[in-house]
Design a protein that fits this description.
- The protein has 191 residues and is an all-alpha fold.
- The longest helix has 19 residues.
Length: 191
């Protein structure tokens, strides 16, 4: 647990090499204690993957995310919020590594799970929808990206309020999509 906390703190301070080393040490210890199908092992796998992603080592991160997702499905079943987060993490990794089509498949799963479990709007659902909208935009599917981003804005307004920094970030994404659709007056209004 201490190694995990050191890893997280190191990452927050920008020392990603130390974050990676301590995350991998924590994973090793968790595996030794719990085996491969335990929530702490799945979390440790995701922590290693996140750190590797932050280092830009997307190919190295992918097997950790995939193993974490498989472990979460074994532990919780296919429709648990943690499984939804696993799909979202894997989808974001694929998007960051230049595979928006692969990202969509994972993110759709994350959205379906969070939408089914969380209903109308939680941070988890908003996050999955945001990344799905980004993947759709990367594929040139701007009308669908716009629809998804409008849903993100509605969810986030309910959670954070209309004047939050989160909404400003959401609107930035929506502005780019509106411009791609040729809706410059709407983009100007949102800006």
């Amino acid at each position: 647990d201490i190694l995990t906390n050191i890893s997280i703190a190191s990452g927050m301070m920008g020392n990603l090499e130390r974050a990676d080393t301590t995350a991998e040490q924590a994973l090793e210890i968790y595996r030794e204690i719990y085996g491969n199908s335990h929530p702490l092992v799945a979390k440790a796998l995701a922590n290693v993957a996140i750190t590797l992603s932050q280092l830009g080592k997307f190919a190295d991160a992918r097997p950790y995310f995939e193993e974490a997702l498989a472990a979460l499905i074994t532990i919780h079943g296919p429709n648990h919020p943690d499984v939804g987060a696993g799909y979202t993490n894997l989808g974001l990794l694929k998007l960051q590594s230049g595979d928006p089509k692969g990202a969509v498949a994972e993110l759709v799963q994350g959205v379906a799970i969070h939408g089914g479990v969380d209903g109308a709007g939680t941070i988890s659902l908003s996050t999955a929808l945001y990344h799905l909208a980004s993947a759709k935009a990367a594929l040139g599917e701007f009308p669908e990206a716009r629809r998804l981003m409008l849903r993100v804005v509605a969810i986030d307004e309910g959670i954070y309020g209309p004047d939050s920094e989160v909404i400003a970030d959401d609107l930035e994404g929506l502005i780019g999509i509106e411009r791609e659709l040729g809706n410059h007056s709407e983009a100007d209004k949102l800006e």
